[in-house]
Specification:
alpha/beta, 11-stranded mixed β-sheet, 10 helices
């Protein structure tokens, strides 16, 4: 793996672009959560696919899909970031989150399971907590069945974060936002009932929420028990595809989001609700999930509100 470009600031987030042979490129990210230091919270975001075949309307990683990464190629991303700061692979961070959420739907790559099994052996990291976010593609049952076994064996008692990316409770509109065949809410709930154990973290129902996309608490309550699920609402990031499809964020990332009527309605329904705005500077860096700096490099054009950091070429 050869890192060819870097963008960002070490005080918040850095995006690394790497070539893995045959002209195939990936991105991976390291990020902090100010005011927390790296020894308190450190987040890595790794790619699992070369591009992504799903093509979510708000995500720039869609298009140009060129296959799966091997377990070794995914681990190389983590090794690069860990060894920059901790050459002995001892990671002291109280919360060391590795998110399979940069380029690619992780459930489409069985090698992700190999990586999850290897991580606890590879790093001395008491705060290690993998995070897997999925749109729950159709035909991935074997992956998810095995994920339960891996989680129970290696990451019990709240050391694993699992997230469904829903974006709206209207399943017809969801088919437009996520234009592949996916599990319905009933199948998601059935799997969640098998996945969750007492002591586990609640399963996250994530909404990268566009204006006009309904979030009906009663629809969620019909499937997802608030005792086992929480809701996270995030802005639509300023990406090329979001602009192309005229998706406007329900949340203004520059304003406090606690007053969101959607969040208030969900809280009244009994859900724990997280309104996650992140740092506006992450938009300019392009480190937010759903962004894809390689598109910025190819386009020669900036997106309003995003991708405005200078990209430093390496080598």
């Amino acid at each position: 793996m050869k890192v060819v470009s870097i963008a960002g600031t070490p005080q918040l987030a850095m995006v690394y672009m790497a070539e893995l042979g045959g002209g195939k490129m990936v991105e991976f990210v390291e990020a902090l959560q100010p005011p927390h230091a790296r020894e308190q919270r450190w987040i890595l975001m790794v790619s699992t696919l070369f591009g992504c075949p799903v093509g979510c309307l708000m995500c720039d990683a869609g298009g140009g899909y060129r296959g799966r990464l091997s377990a070794g190629q995914m681990l190389a991303q983590v090794d690069y970031l860990v060894e920059r700061h901790y050459p002995d692979r001892r990671v002291p961070a109280a919360k060391f989150k590795i998110q399979f959420a940069r380029m690619g739907e992780p459930a489409l790559n069985p090698a992700v399971l190999e990586v999850l099994e290897e991580l606890p052996r590879r790093y001395r990291a008491p705060g290690l907590m993998p995070s897997l976010s999925t749109v729950a593609p159709h035909g991935t049952g074997a992956f998810f069945d095995r994920l339960i076994e891996v989680k129970d064996q290696h990451y019990p008692n709240g050391r694993f974060q699992f997230q469904y990316s829903l974006h709206t409770t209207d399943e017809t509109l969801r088919r437009q936002l996520v234009p592949v065949k996916t599990w319905g809410f009933g199948q998601m709930a059935e799997y969640g009932g098998r996945f969750w154990r007492p002591g586990d973290r609640k399963i996250t129902l994530n909404f990268a929420l566009a204006a006009g996309m309904p979030v009906d608490p009663q629809v969620l309550l019909a499937h997802f028990d608030p005792r086992r699920y929480l809701v996270k609402i995030t802005p639509i990031n300023p990406t090329y595809r979001a602009r192309q499809h005229r998706l406007v964020s329900h949340l203004d990332p520059c304003q406090a989001g606690g007053g969101s009527p959607v969040a208030q309605a969900l809280a009244r329904a009994g859900y724990e609700v997280i309104v996650s705005l992140g740092e506006v500077e992450e938009n300019r860096i392009g480190s937010n999930c759903g962004q894809y700096v390689l598109n910025y490099l190819a386009s020669q054009g900036a997106v309003e509100g995003g991708y405005t950091y200078e990209v430093q070429r390496v080598g």
